[in-house]
Write a structure and sequence with these properties.
There is one protein chain. The chain is α+β, with helices and mostly antiparallel strands. Helix content is 36%, strand content 15%. The protein is built from 8 helices and 9 strands. Strands 1, 2, 7, 8 and 9 form a 5-stranded mixed β-sheet that branches. The protein has a two-stranded antiparallel sheet with strand order 3-4.
């Protein structure tokens, strides 16, 4: 179960400007820094401040769901983007259909190509489900990144399909509702396209949080605390292990 949290603005420092020092490096804070909290703007101090906030949030969340030893869960920060589910716009659907006509005309009947990879095991899929597809918004202006390589790979796996049938196969997965301004296939359940039909970038792109999770998952930290942040605010957190999200 996700643990929600909204990081509020730090309390106003009641000491006068010029008297307050950074809690990490002891440097005298500027007037702006003074009224923003007790941490200066130097990157090392801001990094330590953020890490302390994340650890405090993890520990508080662990108490709420009665999870012991929260320090066992390595912290992974992912982006968060708020979206509204809306019907797929007719203009977007027509543009996708026209794009597919062009691609399939050039790619139908291509020789065999490598099969797309399946979902990665372990904790990595939970990172993407927690993020809810912030990277998918980039596909909104690029026809889901579908290109000749993608369509050729699908056509090679289905040599009996005509160009029109390949186009219809993709259009079949256009959902009734998708996230506004995002990829047409981006739904509340994730990508509506099967993995083998997606563009290579959709299968292989890794944000910083996903890279961190993969590295930790291969090392000594199969247990993760995934934190979604937006505009320096903590939105929610989830404890994840090899079995999935903790209840």
């Amino acid at each position: 179960m996700p643990t929600a949290h909204r990081a509020g603005r730090p309390g106003v420092n009641r000491r006068s400007p010029g008297q307050t020092r950074c809690r990490y490096c002891s440097r005298v804070l500027s007037t702006l820094e003074h009224y923003s909290g007790d941490c200066c703007s130097r990157p090392p101090c801001r990094e330590r401040h953020l890490q302390n906030q994340l650890e405090a949030f993890r520990n508080d969340s662990a108490r709420q769901i009665e999870t012991a030893e929260p320090e066992r869960y390595a912290i992974v920060v992912i982006p968060h983007r708020v979206g509204e589910l809306v019907p797929v716009e007719p203009d977007r659907l027509r543009a996708l259909a026209n794009h597919l006509v062009t691609l399939t005309a050039a790619c139908a009947g291509q020789p065999a190509a490598p099969v797309r990879p399946d979902d990665a095991p372990g904790t990595v899929p939970a990172v993407c489900s927690s993020c809810q597809g912030a990277c998918c918004y980039h596909g909104g202006n690029h026809a889901a990144f579908l290109d000749e390589d993608t369509i050729s790979a699908f056509a090679a796996q289905h040599p009996d399909l005509t160009a029109n049938q390949i186009s219809s196969a993709y259009l079949h997965y256009v959902p009734d509702l998708h996230f506004a301004n995002s990829c047409v296939f981006h739904t509340e359940r994730g990508c509506n396209l099967p993995r083998t039909m997606r563009a290579a970038i959709c299968n292989h792109y890794e944000c910083r949080g996903l890279k961190t999770a993969r590295e930790l998952g291969q090392g000594s930290h199969p247990a993760l605390f995934i934190v979604a942040r937006h505009d320096n605010a903590i939105i929610r957190g989830e404890f994840v292990n090899g079995s999935g999200v903790l209840p």
